[in-house]
Design goal:
The complex is a heterodimer of chains A (about 110) and B (about 110). By secondary structure, chain A is an all-beta fold. Chain A has strands spanning about 5, 10-15, 20, 25, 30-40, 45-50, 55-60, 65-70, 75-80, 85-95, 100, 105-110. Chain A starts with a strand and ends with a strand. The chains are: A mainly beta (about 110), B mainly beta (about 110).
């Protein structure tokens, strides 16, 4: 069975600070990895995804994530956050069943 | 494309009443997921359909919950009878055959009093 762990439940930053949100998964085979963002009162939207190839994936709005297979990690990063990045961030993994498993989410608050 | 469409967006009902949530998939997509989101439990997968067939319903809480996909583009999630602990935001998400990412609908905020 696959599982996802997001270590940071709540993160509070000031604008222009750098961001890194942790995501670790457990699954023995080939995986597809995702980060979704949920802005307040809205639905989940895809930020970026990894299927294969370059382990450094660039997404929308300046976000990127790095797949490190040896660490079973897929951490999300952004060099300089903005107030508009305030949202809930979800990491998800999809293995052989193609049914994604979502982490509990990380709430990010960015102070202007 | 209009994206995934859910209705109603908000539903307030009394305990014991039947609730029906509706979801229209993105045209051409063949997989449908129903999720429930609460503060306490996060995002939970309730049921997954592929090509109109329920593949995994292990997340459906109990017999009060049922989901159908009468055609390739439409699904319903029914709760009968509803209880206050069913209060949550219910999302559906669709996925295409050649892709792996899901497209979420705007959600239905259900309040059972």
């Amino acid at each position: 069975a696959q599982s996802v762990s997001q270590h940071n439940h709540h993160v509070i930053l000031s604008e222009a600070a750098s961001l890194e949100l942790g995501c670790n998964y457990s699954y023995g085979g080939t995986v597809n990895l995702f980060w979704y963002v949920q802005y307040p009162g809205q639905h989940l939207q895809l930020l970026l995804k990894y299927f294969s190839g370059d382990p450094l994936v660039k997404g929308i709005k300046g976000f990127e994530a790095e797949f490190i297979k040896s660490k079973f990690s897929f951490n999300l990063r952004k060099p300089s956050v903005q107030w508009s990045d305030t949202a809930e961030y979800f990491c998800a993994v999809s293995g052989g069943s193609y049914i994604p498993t979502f982490g509990r989410g990380t709430s990010l608050i960015v102070h202007p | 494309d209009a994206g995934v469409i859910q209705s109603p967006r908000h539903e307030v009902t009394e305990m014991g009443q039947e609730v029906t949530l509706r979801c229209k998939l993105i045209s051409g997509h063949n997989s449908l997921f129903w999720y429930r989101q609460t503060m306490m439990r996060g995002l939970e997968l309730l049921i997954y359909f592929n090509n109109n067939v329920p593949i995994d319903d292990s997340g459906m809480p109990e017999d009060r919950f049922s989901a159908k996909m009468p055609n390739a583009s439409f699904s319903t999630l029914k709760i009968q009878p509803s209880e206050p602990r069913d209060s949550a935001v219910y999302f559906c998400a669709s996925r295409g055959q050649a892709t792996y990412e899901q497209y979420f609908g705007p959600g239905t905020r259900l309040t059972v009093t």
